[in-house]
């Protein structure tokens, strides 16, 4: 198995005026191609920060982040954007669809940015994706005419339409009821199995962790270990269902 | 690339539809563009029409005048208020230099000045005639025309002139009574005058007239003539110019009455409108106006102005009666009695009846007036063929006289009714120079010649003047003071001889070119490159020390040319306010929209949109709004203009003829207002959006991950 994401001794600091917040404190992690991996941890533990680094929307303060074999530290804004466009698909907690565009147009958007396919090819590609997420009948709908689950399906289609190597999903089910959330995870896993696309998703919900091949547990900006879903759920139970925020704030 | 553009436009349109404030912004942009295109187009047309008027009637495309002038050249300045222009000294050199400048077609020398025409006192003229007749009767004729006329005829004519005098006195009596009634005219109410009038009203005075005709004539001359207040002045503005060149350059000019001044000769051309308006018999002029109005569908019965004209014609017969001597009066009374089938004997009443016109009888009466009355009177105070004596006073009080023959009247095609275009008369350049006291080489030569010939003879100035004001000089015009070099002036008989000769003299082109002018019109081949030509002329003047400055027709026309610029400035201010309002609202609205949509921008950035795309997206949104509504505004403005252009705008009055360059203003559908409007829209939209768009561009993709606030 080849590594698609390699993170070594990464520290991420946020400075808030005179204070510095350490969101990640020396994280190392390897994700292999085709994995369906969950990053689990309580709120404020650094999940989103880690996904942002992997997703190339942010860069590490120290340490090395390698995505698809490229060290993101040395890349320009423009190169990072291109890397995101061509290698990574994003699924957001609040779906983040373009409200004035139809379902079809939302899914087509990354293809237009790539500017590789002609209109016919784009149409085929978008429709095939929408068929896979079960929304071929809703091509002309606007996001506000859809339910939360349907919107997230559109977001999944949009994330996968460029055939990326990695799909990142930051708490994809947090805004959905559990039944719908499970359906979304089922869909994601089936796509992972069918296409071999690497999925990395974060959650603090143990019901969600169960879907993963592996769970990376994170707390206070540090990786606590890489476990099987069963181990992780067991750990989660010990710690309690919903731990309170435990971020450390230090003076710089 | 195109697909991406389509997508951005699609997003833009959808976003625009989402927010009702865009309708307000769009409405303002539409209004601003509509106003700009419509009024801008109209002003442009007006400017072009006025340019045709100004350029075509007097100014030419460019005017040149002395660089050392303190006053600005104002060709259409207020009456009597003339720029004091220093002379341009070496016109031939200037002309030579300027015609070599690219784009210059012709240089027409000019000088502008004014005179006042006072017609002779009617009593004086009649008394003079009587005196000559008496002298002839008594066998010592002073008027050569009267020698050889049989005695009986002379007696008859004397009677006729006496009847004329008595008629004049009757009119004066009427004036006095009227003045006494409203206590205005104190001059004629003076007891001394009343007494004199009373005396000459006595039949006895006239019965005994023949006993001592010369004494009685003297009494009339001393006591009655001064009472007559028949001093209507005509202000005569004229341009001294090379008439041939003028006519060639100003091709809208055409002769209405008479003929052009023969090539190279001295002469005067009267603006036809002025001739009609101010020199024609008022009664006749009013009849003409009524006729004209009726042709335009107006009726005496319903039109207040026409009613007033008829009333004035009925009451103001004085002007006609004053002109009628005994013979003429008798003849006219007879024919009017027959015409009107009445036994009325008073010429006053008869004329009043004839002129009591209605819509029913107008055509008939009009023809009858011209047929019966006009041949008995002088229809125009100055006629074609008359000799005008124009006097100019030097600063030292010396009078310079120039006699010029009136060859005809002229008008500019399309501007026949414009008082502005019809206010300037034309004089030949040689006469003009003399009036101004500038010595031509021709004149200098002559001066020596005459001084040699007449040197010994001392002729009193009064005599010479008196001779000058004889039969030939019926009309005397007084010019505004010119700058005359007293040393160069001629005196006495010499001048008279010279002037008679000068009138007949034909000048060569060299004569005309040689000498002083005050300003000159420059005609261009391509008027659109006028600014360039002005710059080049000014440059040539500098290089060759010509001492002139060039200004555009617009500047040269004085306040008139600036009117359009004032209107244009007002338009720009009004449109500016509208667009500034649009810009402010647009800025705030785009700023709000940007702040509300940071997550959208962040998301787009996260899934791979470059910064430039976000920037274009926001800009395109505003551009679509601006171009959509601006385009509608342009279309609407252009549409209204085109609709107006099918019929044109009728000139509301005669003054507007000049601005409209004819009876109607047909708007030109020029493209510049559209181009400027487009530029304004781009500036407004991009200007108001750039800052928010740059903010949007800088939104971090991280913003996509954060929960929506
Ligand atoms: N932009 C930021 N500025 C300052 N502190 C931040 C920022 N983003 C995250 N943090 C802090 O970093 C820590 C990790 O946050 P995050 O990665 O969002 O945790 P999680 O996603 O696991 O809830 C938290 O303490 C959070 O307050
Ligand atoms: Mg988070």
Quick take:
The complex is a heterodimer of chains A (252) and B (709). Chain A is α/β, with parallel strands linked by helices and 252 residues long.
List the helices and strands and how they pair.
The complex is a heterodimer of chains A (252) and B (709).
Chain A: E1 3-16, E2 19-32, E3 36-40, H1 47-54, E4 62-67, E5 70-71, H2 77-87, E6 88-91, H3 103-114, H4 119-132, H5 148-160, E7 166-170, H6 178-195, E8 198-203, H7 206-209, E9 214-219, E10 222-227, H8 229-239, E11 249-251
Parallel strand pairs in A: 3-8, 3-9, 6-7, 7-8
Antiparallel strand pairs in A: 1-2, 1-4, 2-11, 4-5, 9-10
Chain B: H1 2-18, H2 21-59, E1 62-66, H3 91-99, E2 104-119, H4 122-137, H5 151-182, H6 186-189, H7 191-201, H8 203-207, H9 213-224, E3 233-241, H10 243-249, E4 253-258, E5 268-271, H11 272-278, H12 282-295, H13 304-315, H14 318-323, H15 326-340, H16 347-354, H17 362-373, E6 387-393, E7 399-412, E8 424-428, H18 429-436, H19 441-454, H20 461-468, E9 475-479, H21 492-504, H22 509-513, E10 519-524, H23 530-544, E11 548-552, H24 553-556, H25 559-596, H26 598-606, H27 611-647, E12 649-650, H28 654-660, E13 664-665, H29 672-697
Parallel strand pairs in B: 3-8, 5-7, 6-9
Antiparallel strand pairs in B: 1-10, 1-11, 2-3, 2-9, 2-10, 4-7, 5-8, 6-7, 12-13
Helix pairs in contact in B: 1-27, 2-25, 2-27, 2-29, 4-5, 4-9, 5-7, 5-15, 12-13, 12-17, 15-16, 19-21, 20-21, 25-29, 27-29
Bound molecules: adenosine-5'-diphosphate and magnesium ion.
Adenosine-5'-diphosphate binds next to β1, β2 and α1 of chain A.
Uncertain residue ranges of chain A: 240-252
Largest Cβ-defined interface:
A-B, 35 and 28 residues
Q: What topology, given as strand order, has the largest sheet of chain A? A: 6-7-8-3-9-10
Bound molecules: adenosine-5'-diphosphate, magnesium ion
Helix proportion of chain A: 25-40%
| Count of helical regions of chain B | 29
Strand content of chain A: 25-35%
Using DSSP, what is the number of strands of chain A? 11
CA-CA gap between termini of chain A? 41 Å
């Amino acid at each position: 198995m080849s590594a698609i994401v390699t993170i070594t001794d990464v520290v991420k600091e946020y400075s808030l005026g005179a204070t510095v917040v350490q969101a990640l404190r020396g994280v190392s992690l390897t994700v292999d191609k085709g994995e369906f991996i969950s990053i689990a941890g309580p709120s404020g533990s650094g999940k989103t920060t880690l996904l942002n680094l992997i997703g190339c929307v942010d860069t590490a303060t120290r340490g090395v982040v390698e995505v698809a074999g490229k060290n993101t530290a040395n890349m320009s804004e423009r190169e990072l954007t291109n890397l995101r466009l061509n290698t990574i698909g994003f699924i957001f907690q609040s779906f983040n669809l373009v409200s004035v565009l139809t379902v079809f147009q939302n899914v087509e958007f990354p293809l237009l940015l790539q500017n590789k396919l002609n209109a016919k090819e784009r149409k085929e590609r978008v429709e095939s994706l929408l068929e896979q997420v079960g929304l071929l009948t809703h091509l002309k709908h606007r996001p506000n005419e859809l339910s939360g689950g349907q919107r997230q399906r559109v977001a999944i289609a949009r994330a996968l339409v460029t055939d990326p190597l990695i799909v990142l999903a930051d708490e994809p089910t947090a805004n959905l009821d559990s039944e719908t959330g499970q359906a979304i995870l089922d869909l994601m896993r089936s796509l992972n199995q069918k296409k071999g696309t690497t999925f990395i998703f974060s959650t603090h919900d143990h019901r969600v962790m169960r879907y993963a091949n592996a769970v990376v547990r994170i707390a206070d900006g540090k990786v606590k270990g890489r476990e099987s879903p069963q181990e992780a759920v067991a750990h989660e139970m010990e710690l309690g269902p919903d731990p309170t925020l435990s971020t450390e704030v230090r003076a710089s | 690339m195109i697909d991406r553009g389509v997508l951005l436009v699609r997003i833009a349109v959808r976003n625009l539809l989402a927010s009702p404030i865009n309708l307000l912004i769009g409405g303002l942009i539409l209004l601003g563009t509509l106003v700009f295109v419509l009024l801008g187009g109209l002003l442009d047309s007006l400017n072009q029409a006025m340019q045709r008027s100004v350029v075509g009637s007097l100014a030419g495309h460019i005017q040149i005048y002395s660089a050392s002038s303190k006053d600005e050249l104002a060709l259409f300045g207020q009456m009597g208020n003339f720029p004091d222009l220093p002379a341009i000294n070496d016109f031939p050199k200037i002309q030579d230099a300027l015609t070599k400048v690219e784009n210059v077609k012709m240089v027409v020398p000019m000088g502008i000045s004014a005179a006042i025409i006072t017609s002779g006192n009617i009593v004086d003229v009649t008394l003079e005639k009587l005196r000559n007749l008496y002298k002839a009767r008594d066998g010592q004729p002073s008027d050569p025309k009267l020698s050889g006329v049989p005695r009986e005829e002379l007696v008859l004519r004397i009677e006729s002139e006496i009847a004329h005098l008595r008629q004049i006195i009757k009119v004066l009596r009427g004036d006095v009574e009227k003045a006494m009634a409203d206590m205005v005219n104190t001059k004629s109410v003076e007891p001394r005058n009343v007494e004199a009038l009373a005396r000459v009203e006595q039949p006895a005075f006239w019965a005994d007239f023949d006993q001592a005709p010369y004494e009685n004539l003297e009494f009339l001359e001393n006591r009655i003539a001064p009472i007559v207040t028949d001093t209507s002045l005509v202000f005569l503005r004229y341009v001294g110019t090379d008439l041939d060149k003028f006519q060639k350059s100003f091709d809208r000019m055409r002769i209405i009455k008479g003929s052009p001044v023969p090539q190279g000769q001295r002469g005067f051309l009267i603006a036809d409108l002025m001739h009609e308006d101010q020199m024609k018999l008022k009664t006749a002029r009013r009849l003409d106006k009524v006729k004209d109005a009726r042709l335009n569908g107006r009726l005496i019965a319903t039109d207040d102005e026409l009613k007033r004209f008829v009333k004035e014609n009925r009451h103001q017969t004085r002007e006609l009666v004053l002109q009628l001597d005994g013979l003429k009066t008798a003849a006219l009374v007879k024919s009017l009695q027959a015409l009107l089938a009445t036994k009325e004997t008073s010429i006053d009443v008869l004329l009043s009846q004839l002129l009591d016109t209605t819509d029913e009888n107008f055509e008939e009466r009009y023809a009858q007036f011209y047929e019966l009355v006009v041949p008995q009177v002088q229809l125009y105070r100055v006629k074609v063929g008359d000799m005008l004596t124009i006097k100019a006073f030097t600063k030292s009080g010396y009078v310079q006289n120039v006699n010029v023959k009136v060859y005809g009247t002229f008008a500019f095609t399309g501007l026949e009714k414009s008082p502005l275009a019809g206010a300037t008369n034309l004089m030949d350049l040689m006469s003009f120079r003399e009036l101004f006291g500038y010595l031509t080489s021709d004149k200098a030569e002559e001066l020596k010649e005459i001084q040699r010939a007449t040197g010994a003879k001392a002729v009193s100035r009064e005599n010479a003047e008196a001779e000058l004001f004889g039969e030939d000089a019926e009309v005397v015009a007084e010019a505004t003071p010119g700058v005359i070099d007293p040393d160069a002036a001629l005196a006495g008989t010499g001048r008279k001889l010279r002037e008679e000769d000068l009138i007949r003299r034909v000048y060569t082109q060299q004569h005309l070119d040689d000498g002083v002018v005050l300003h000159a019109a420059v005609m261009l081949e391509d008027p659109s490159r006028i600014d360039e030509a002005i710059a080049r002329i000014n440059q040539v003047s500098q290089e060759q020390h010509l001492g002139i400055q060039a200004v555009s027709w617009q500047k040269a026309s004085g306040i008139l040319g600036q009117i359009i610029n004032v209107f244009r400035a007002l338009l720009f201010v009004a449109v500016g306010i509208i667009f500034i309002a649009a810009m402010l609202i647009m800025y705030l609205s785009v700023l709000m929209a940007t702040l509300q949509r940071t997550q959208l921008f962040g998301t787009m950035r996260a899934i791979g949109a470059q910064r430039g795309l976000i920037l274009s997206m926001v800009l395109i949104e505003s551009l679509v709004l601006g171009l959509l509504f601006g385009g509608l505004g342009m279309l609407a403005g252009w549409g209204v203009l085109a609709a107006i252009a099918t019929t044109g705008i009728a000139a509301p009055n005669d003054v507007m003829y000049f601005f409209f360059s004819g009876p109607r203003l047909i708007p030109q559908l020029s493209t510049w207002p559209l181009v400027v409007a487009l530029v304004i829209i781009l500036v407004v939209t991009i200007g108001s959006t750039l800052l928010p768009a740059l903010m949007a561009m800088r939104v971090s993709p991280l913003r996509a991950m954060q929960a929506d606030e």
